[in-house]
Specification:
Structural class: mainly alpha
Distance between the termini: 79 Å
Number of strands: 2
Largest sheet: 2 strands, antiparallel
Strand content: under 5%
Shape: globular
C-alpha cells in the first residue's frame, strides 16, 4: 500500500534573512548608480576627509556633552571633568582642523576654476556662502520658538540658556569658515607659517607675560587660518609628496606633546566646563599644533581613501554625508537635546541625565548613540531640503557640468 501519511512541508527559509538580502541588493544597486554618476576625475579622498571630519565632530559632541538633570533644571557637564584620563577621546574626535584643511583646498581650487570660467568673485562667493547659511535659518527659527515657549511655560532660565547655547554653539564655526572663504583670494598664496607665528606670539603674551585673556580671540582667525592655508598649499601641489604629511604629523605630534607635558596646556583638545584654560575656546597653540598633526595624517591617508572610495557602497555613504554636511552639523546637538528632553518623561536615565563621573556613564552613553543617530536622521529627513533650497535636484558631488577648458577640470570637481 502506498504510504498515505502526509509529506512534511519543507521548512520555509526564515523571513529575516530574505528581507535583508533584498535590502542589500537594493542598496548595492543604488550605490552603483551613484558611483556611475560620479565624474571619473573627481578626487573622492577629499569628500571622504570632509565626511570623516563632520562625523568626528558629531560623535565627539555626543560623547563629551552631558545634560545633567538637577532638580527642575538641566546643566551642561563633561565626562572629561571627572575622568580627565579620557582626554584621548578628544584627540580622536576633535577633527575641525581637517575640515578647514579640506575647506581651504576646495575653496582655492573652486575660485581658480571660477576665474577661468570668467565668473565674478561675488557670484562665486554667494554660491558658496548660500550653501553654508541656508540651513541656519531653520535652526534659528526652531530654537527661537522653542526658547520662547519654554520661558512662557515657566521653564528654568538656566535650562533654557543651556539648551540654546548648545544648539547654537556650532554656528561660531560657520562664521569663521565664512570669513576665511570670503578672504580666499587673499589667502591663496599665504604661507601657513605666518598665522602659526601669530598664534605663538598671542599665547606668549597671554600665558607668559600676563596680557588680557581677551587677546586670545585673535587666535580664532589665526588658529584656523593655519589648516586653511595648508589646504591652499595642497591645491598648489606643494603637499603632494608623502614627506610633507610625515613632517606635519611628526612635528605636530611632538610639539603638542611638549606643550602639554611642559608648558601647562590642557591635554583635552575640547573645552571642559570649569577648566581654567580651554584649548578650543579660543584656539591655543596646542590646538593648532595638534591640528597640524591631524592634517599630516589626513594627507598620508589620501591614497588609502581613494582606494576605499572605489567601492560603490563606501562612496555612496560618503556622498550622502557630503550632500547634507551642514544639516548634520547644525542639527546633531538638537538631536541629543530632543532625546534628553523626551527621556525625562521616564525619569533620570543613566547616560542621559546622570552625572558623567564613571565608566557606567560611558557605557550607558555608548548605548544611547544609536538613539541620537535615529533622531538626527529624523531631523535630516525634515530639514535636508533647507540645505539645497532652490538648487536643482542632484548634486555636484556626483554630477558636475563639464568645464569649458581641460585645464580647469580638476578644480571644477572639488565643490
Amino acid at each position: 500500500m502506498p504510504d498515505l501519511a502526509p509529506t512534511p512541508a519543507p521548512t520555509p527559509a526564515p523571513t529575516p534573512t530574505v528581507i535583508p538580502s533584498f535590502a542589500r541588493g537594493a542598496l548595492r544597486e543604488a550605490a552603483a548608480r551613484i558611483d556611475a554618476a560620479t565624474p571619473k576625475d573627481r578626487d573622492r579622498a577629499v569628500d571622504a576627509l570632509r565626511a570623516l571630519a563632520i562625523l568626528g565632530v558629531v560623535l565627539g559632541h555626543w560623547l563629551v556633552t552631558a545634560l545633567v538633570a538637577d532638580g527642575g533644571s538641566l546643566h551642561a557637564a563633561s565626562p572629561l571633568g571627572d575622568m580627565p584620563w579620557l582626554a584621548p577621546v578628544s584627540w580622536a574626535f576633535q577633527t575641525l582642523a581637517v575640515f578647514f584643511l579640506v575647506g581651504g583646498h576646495v575653496a582655492t581650487r573652486g575660485y581658480a576654476s571660477a576665474r577661468a570660467r570668467g565668473e565674478s568673485y561675488g557670484r562665486w562667493l554667494t554660491a558658496r556662502l548660500s550653501r553654508l547659511f541656508r540651513p541656519v535659518l531653520a535652526v534659528l527659527a526652531l530654537w527661537t520658538a522653542t526658547a520662547a515657549l519654554l520661558l512662557l511655560t515657566g521653564a528654568d532660565f538656566v535650562t533654557v540658556h543651556t539648551l540654546v547655547k548648545l544648539a547654537l554653539s556650532p554656528m561660531w564655526f560657520l562664521l569663521v569658515f565664512a570669513a576665511l572663504t570670503a578672504a580666499t583670494p587673499l589667502l591663496t598664496r599665504m604661507h601657513p607659517l605666518w598665522p602659526l607665528v601669530v598664534v605663538l606670539h598671542v599665547d606668549l603674551l597671554r600665558f607668559g607675560l600676563g596680557a588680557p585673556s581677551g587677546l586670545g580671540w585673535v587666535n580664532l582667525a589665526a588658529g584656523w587660518l593655519v589648516p586653511y592655508t595648508l589646504g591652499a598649499a595642497w591645491s598648489r601641489g606643494e603637499l603632494d609628496r608623502r614627506r610633507s604629511g610625515w613632517i606635519l604629523l611628526t612635528g605636530g605630534t611632538a610639539a603638542t606633546a611638549a606643550l602639554v607635558a611642559w608648558a601647562g596646556y590642557p591635554a583635552s583638545m575640547v573645552g571642559v566646563p570649569g577648566a581654567p584654560v580651554s584649548n578650543l575656546n579660543p584656539p591655543t597653540l596646542a590646538a593648532v599644533t595638534f591640528g597640524l598633526a591631524q592634517c599630516g595624517l589626513a594627507l598620508l591617508l589620501r591614497e588609502r581613501l581613494r582606494r576605499a572610495m572605489r567601492r560603490p557602497v563606501a562612496w555612496a555613504a560618503v556622498a550622502l554625508v557630503n550632500l547634507s554636511a551642514m544639516t548634520i552639523f547644525l542639527w546633531h546637538q538638537t538631536a541629543l537635546m530632543a532625546t534628553t528632553a523626551t527621556g525625562l518623561l521616564a525619569g533620570r536615565l543613566p547616560g542621559l541625565h546622570t552625572r558623567p563621573d564613571g565608566l557606567d556613564w560611558v557605557a550607558a552613553r555608548l548605548a544611547w548613540l544609536p538613539v541620537f543617530a535615529l533622531v538626527l536622521a529624523g531631523c535630516w529627513a525634515t530639514f535636508r531640503s533647507c540645505e539645497h533650497g532652490g538648487v536643482r535636484r542632484g548634486t555636484r558631488v556626483v554630477r558636475v557640468h563639464s568645464p569649458r577648458r581641460r585645464g580647469t577640470t580638476a578644480g571644477a570637481r572639488h565643490v
